[in-house]
Amino acid sequence: LPLLLLALGLAAAAKSPYQQVLQHSRLRGRQHGPNVCAVQKLIGTNRKYFTNCKQWYQRKICGKSTVISYECCPGYEKVPGEKGCPAALPLSNIYETLGVVGSATTQLYSDRSNLRPEIEGPGSFTIFAPSNEAWASLSAETLDSLVSNVNIELLNALRYHMVDKRVLTDDLKHGTTLSSMYQNLPIQIHHYPNGIVTVNCARLLKADHHATNGVVHVIDKVIATTTNTIQQIIETEDSLETLRTAVAASDLSSLLESEGQYTLLAPTNEAFEKIPRETLNRILGDPEALRDLLNHHILKSAMCAEAIIAGLTMETLEGATLDVGCSGEELTLNGKPIIANKDVLATNGVVHFVNELLIPDSAKTVFELAQESEVSKSTDLFRQAGLSSHLTGSERVTLLAPVNNVFKDGLPVIDSNMRNLLLNHIVKDQLSSKYLYHGQKLQTLGDKELRVFVYRNNLCIENACIAAHDKRGRFGTLFSVDKMLTPPSGSVMDVLKADHRFSTLVAAIQSAGLTENLNRPGTFTVFAPTNEAFQAMPQGELNKLLGNAKELANILKFHVADEILVSGAVTALVRLKSMQGDKLEVSMKNNVIHINKEPVAESDIMATNGVIYAVNSVLQPQASRPQERGDEPADPALEIFKQASALSKVSQRNPRLAPVYSRILARMKENSGGF
Asked: Which PANTHER family does the entry link to (predicted)?
């Protein structure tokens, strides 16, 4: 039994996409009787589709609503008084079958052109028969030229729709060609994953109608012979003159003449004229950018318009992707209906004329990349600062551009400090985020060194984290970041000393003998209590803390972790081991960082050896044990404390902290032991 199930599974997997879609339609229609298929019909048209499960539930084709109808599956017919379609169509020759399957016009023209005896007689043929609507849609001029010379033009046209062997849908492999019965000229077959089969870009409507002398497939167009390659189409079309020049300059002619199955999205002269002359000249004068531009207009496989019934992503020869879709009768590229003429068939693919140029990122300057993305306000800032030349030339750089939301309250004023800060948003060399590693050092045009931090859910450069996939241009790369970057300006102790909010903390660190630790190279995260935090402590507790060097050092170490954690890395609860030994719990709530459930007053104050968070409370270890009172601070420690407090006029003026300083300074006269 397992072997049987495996064999059945392999058989099902071997079915062609068309057969899989047909099977799905059978399943949807089986409640209406045997051999009933459910089809989706575009409202207001006669266009019908067998669809897969996804389209069935979406009830849309090319964005337009459909209705479900039920009809006999190919090869079956109704019987009066019985449910469904229980009877197989009578097996007859190809000529008779044409009249039964909805191609009576093809049957009529077969009679007029004297093809009838051949398709009534013995043999094994396949005919791709245009539907009645397909013949009716031909221009009067084309139809007149065919029917006015039935023995030559019409006969040749019909024989081009024929193959001298039996070919079923499972034999119609994607990208293959069949030799027609007119001068063995090729017929191009494409069998797409969504189940659509095209014959010279005409959609197969009703397939696999068996006849005694072959098989009939009904298609939605009258197909014509093609003998030109894609390159020859470019050379003969007046509207592609600029493209012709560009192809010649890029040496792509040989590719577009070679065997294969490509889709060329051919930009017209009008498309080139829409591009600013400076941009166009830059690309045309740069062989690599020009080749990328043209390759971005070439898809790796032939894509006929009839095969596109929903949006899909396709890869170009340049390596990027395009969103190919449709809206009603129009094809769209990246959501825009810019295809002017579709399905111009070539021997090595298909050409769609487009009236807008598709410039890939790889042919753009960093400035152009930024202007077209969610960092467009940053480009205004760099332009106002006179830094555009770094972003528009051939200099290899990476731009760290804050997203527009950073400037929701307006752009900052450009002065010398802001210009220097912006220079530090431009990194020397063209980088790719996927090659960045934790601890990597980056040099900026402002001669600063920036650090890379790699976290589980984020990639950050100093305090700024990358907010979107990077865009790689011709010479530069764009990193969109979530905030203005703050380059480090000194060690942790340097930063604390320079900020009057931390004068009490600085004195405490010096008193506890931790200054050297926070000055040395390292990777610290410091949750720095402000003067306000110390002021908020009960007087007795504050006196006890500042008077006990051992306990003070223990508490201060609880505020320091030996790894750098910037705020952008905190998306869930993060636990850090403090230098005291206990865990610190860092979390994000309402876009505010919390440490041990206490809100942080300011985040991401960057130092060369760490990052500082300002907190308005002194943190206490959760499982702290009563500690023995240590000796009083030694004279050297008290000397440091004295110097720090003397420098901090703010702290001395504070009515809560002044008595504490006075008490400690008075004890300097006593002869105390060290800690």
From this structure: PERIOSTIN-RELATED (PTHR10900), TRANSFORMING GROWTH FACTOR-BETA-INDUCED PROTEIN IG-H3 (PTHR10900:SF82)
**Tell me, what amino acid is at 335?**
G
Are residues 134 and 219 in contact, defined by beta-carbon separation less than 8 angstroms? Answer: yes
Query: In this structure, what token pair is assigned to residue 626?
Result: 């009563």
Q: Tell me the pLDDT tens digit for each residue of 394-412.
A: 999 999 999 999 999 999 9
How many whole angstroms separate alpha carbon 225 and alpha carbon 221?
Answer: 13
The pLDDT, as a whole number, for residue 642 is 46
E strand spans, 286-381? 298-299, 312-315, 321-327, 330-333, 339-346, 349-354
Residue 388: exposed, middle, or buried by beta-carbon count in 10 A (0-12, 13-18, 19+)? Answer: middle
* Spatial separation of the C-alpha atoms in residues 379 and 392, rounded to whole Å: 11
Angle among Cα 508, 514, 518 to the nearest 5 degrees reads: 110
Greatest Cα-to-Cα distance within the chain, rounded to the nearest angstrom = 127
CA torsion through residues 637, 638, 642, 645, sign: positive
Of 392, 458, 462, 455, the C-alpha closest to 424 is 462
Report in angstroms the alpha-carbon separations of 103 from 13, 131, 187, 219, 410: 32, 5, 20, 9, 67
**Residue 110 confidence (pLDDT):** 96
Closest alpha carbon to 514 in 477, 562, 481, 566: 562
- The per-residue pLDDT for range 248-275, each reduced to its tens digit, is 999 899 999 999 899 999 999 999 999 9
Q: Where are the beta strands (DSSP E) in 229-294?
A: 262-267
Per DSSP, the three-state class of 199 is strand
Residue 4, pLDDT score: 41
Which parts of 129-240 fold into alpha helices (H)? Answer: 132-136, 140-147, 155-160, 230-236
Q: Which residues pair with 218 in a beta bridge?
A: 129, 206
- How high is the pLDDT of residue 662? 56
Q: Would you say 530 and 502 are in contact if contact means Cβ atoms under 8 Å apart?
A: yes
Can you give the pLDDT at residue 658? 58
Instruction: Kindly give the parts of the chain with pLDDT less than 50.
Output: 1, 3-12, 625-647, 649-651, 664, 667-675
117 token code pair: 């005896």
* Residue 613 near residue 596 (C-beta atoms within 8 A): no
This prediction's pTM = 0.80
Alpha carbons 400 and 66: distance in angstroms, whole number? 47
The structural domains of the chain, ordered by start, are: 17-77 (no CATH), 90-219 (2.30.180.10), 230-359 (2.30.180.10), 364-481 (2.30.180.10), 492-615 (2.30.180.10)
Distance in angstroms (rounded) separating the CA atoms of residues 471 and 370:
9
